[in-house]
Amino acid sequence: MTHGELQALFEAYVPWNEQERNDRELALQAFRSFDDLLTRENTILHLCASPWIISRDHRQVLLVYHRLYDSWGWSGGHCDGDGVLWRVAKREGMEESGITSLALADERPIGIDVLSVPRHHKNGALVSAHLHLNVTYLFYGDPALSLSHKADEVKGARWFDVEAIPRIVKEKAMLPVYAKLCERARTL
Fold first, then answer.
1. C-alpha distances in angstroms, 73 versus 50, 52, 97?
2. Quick check: 102 and 139 in contact, CB under 8 A?
3. DSSP notation for 116-174
4. Computed from CA positions of residues 157, 111, 55, 172, in that sequence, does the dihedral angle turn out positive or negative?
5. For the Nudix hydrolase domain, which residue ranges apply (predicted)?
């Protein structure tokens, strides 16, 4: 998708709650201000995509243990020039968890979030604090499939009961995001 098509995606997105209304407005402001959101050349904000991977019965969610955040959480990553956001989400989910098959539930996103990323080191270089404009898509996965993980980014991948999310996620600021995604998934 082009810059204009991506902006149109955000314009057409119907926010789920107040947080999404605010984040959608920030996203539209970013599209009006920057033309390099698809790459990491923009040091302020990067466009990213995540899969919310659940079992077809909606009882389990596939999470990875992030080294950066020292917590279980969703998969996801930078677009790195790819404007097909659901494809980025699928790629990131498969790379980070090792799952070999994911089924896209809908090409429309189920969530948009502006997330802060703390200053950190990656490949020996300092990465300044910045924002991720994250778009989430719903995918179905099979908990019977074997998992592996991308060891340089995550420490593991595992299926959890949805009810376990508040107990296992250390990033408390992410709990409302994950609750929203579970709710959105149930409405599809």
1. 11, 10, 11
2. yes
3. EE--EEETTEEE--EEEEEEEEEEE--TTS-----TTTEEEEEEEEGGGHHHH---GGG
4. positive
5. 44-181
The CATH number assigned to the domain holding 58 equals: 3.90.79.10
User: Facing residues of 45 across strands?
Assistant: 131
Q: Which two tokens stand for residue 180?
A: 């929203």
pLDDT in tens, 21-41: 999 999 999 999 998 888 888
Q: CA-CA distance, 70 to 9, in Å (whole number)? A: 32
Cβ 61 vs Cβ 83: under 8 Å: no
CA distance 97 to 75: 8
pTM greater than the 0.70 cutoff: yes
Domain that holds residue 123: 3-187
pLDDT at 115: 93
